[in-house]
Specification:
three-stranded antiparallel sheet; about 55 residues; alpha+beta; globular; 3 strands
Length: about 55
């Protein structure tokens, strides 16, 4: 089984997504940024650097 991956937004926002599928985490985070933070211009690469592996 793959490691669990996670991306969290800042504590004020509270968004967090976790999955064993890296693509699912990235897609969810990209959608979140587009809808909740439309002024932020983050690329998928930027978002991927924020991804953590959860033990």
């Amino acid at each position: 089984m793959q490691s669990l991956k996670e991306i969290s937004c800042d504590p004020v926002c509270g968004f967090m997504i976790r999955s064993h599928e890296e693509r699912e985490v990235l897609d969810g985070a990209v959608k979140h940024v587009k809808h909740a933070h439309p002024d932020m211009k983050l690329t998928e690469k930027d978002i991927k650097t924020k991804m953590k592996t959860v033990k």
